[in-house]
Amino acid sequence: MKKPYVRKLDQIGKVSVWIVNGQYIRKSIDEEFTNFGQHFRFRFIPRNEFWIDQEHGPGEQQFFIDHLLVEHRLMAGGMGYDKALVKADAVECQERRRSQLVKAVLSLNREHIIEDIHKTLLKKYSGTVKVWVVNGELVRSVYFIDFTEGGHDKVYRFIPRNEVWLDDDLASAERKFVLLHELHERHLMSLGWPYSQAHRSASKIEYHCRAHPEDLEADLQAEKGKNN
């Protein structure tokens, strides 16, 4: 498996930390791979490796490594993923709160945090529902540590009404696929669908367009219309 690897980042004991091509992994191996992973969560990752998606925004690599060290150790000892995730999130959250970026933002009035989180409005895909590229590091550090790729107001209460957020760590080549997922999911949830069913339906249309990118733009415009 040569394709996923971009470069080796670090060596921690027996564990090799690799920067990988997340876009390739999501298209060819497992669409559920997000910012990082380890063997006991994703069996296609070798046992003594941590994989971190190549970043396209400010560096969060050390936060991810801190998380993976806890998650990998606990799951190797037999703990289930859900419990290990809670403990790993707690460690990661503690480290994030110590960062200078978060300290500076939290010193401001809370009502101004959204202004720091919003980065770029994607006007082509915005109507009644606004689509924003956001500072993913701030979202994870201030609101929800497991925010990855994107989200919308029907799932996350911290996202303002009628907004869809795309993580700035996301490669520009992947933004439209994730946006399609979020818009489709949001529309179904606005009709009363539960998240689990809406998410499965959104994953199907996203997977189809990853395999057939010629359909992507038309499907995006259709989902934009359904959300307006």
Structure description:
With 228 residues, this protein is an alpha/beta fold. The chain starts with a strand and ends with a helix. α7 (172-190) packs antiparallel against α8 (195-211) and α7 runs parallel beside α9 (216-226). It has helices at residues 22-28, 61-76, 81-97, 100-106, 113-117, 136-143, 172-190, 195-211, 216-226; strands spanning 5-12, 15-20, 36-38, 49-53, 118-121, 130-134, 150-152, 163-167. It has a four-stranded mixed β-sheet, with helices on both faces.
Keyphrases for this structure?
about 230 residues; alpha/beta; four-stranded mixed β-sheet; about 45% helix
Quick overview:
With 228 residues, the chain is of the alpha/beta class. 47% of the residues lie in helices and 17% in strands.
Kindly estimate the percentage of residues that lie in beta strands according to DSSP: 15-25%
Distance between the termini: 43 Å
Overall mean pLDDT stands at: 89
Kindly report the oligomeric state of this protein: single chain
N-to-C SSE string, H for helix and E for strand: EEHEEHHHHEEHEEHHH
SS-based structural class? alpha/beta
Give the spatial strand order of the biggest sheet.
1-2-4-3
Write the layout of secondary structure elements.
Layout: E1 5-12, E2 15-20, H1 22-28, E3 36-38, E4 49-53, H2 61-76, H3 81-97, H4 100-106, H5 113-117, E5 118-121, E6 130-134, H6 136-143, E7 150-152, E8 163-167, H7 172-190, H8 195-211, H9 216-226
Helix pairs in contact: 2-3, 7-8, 7-9
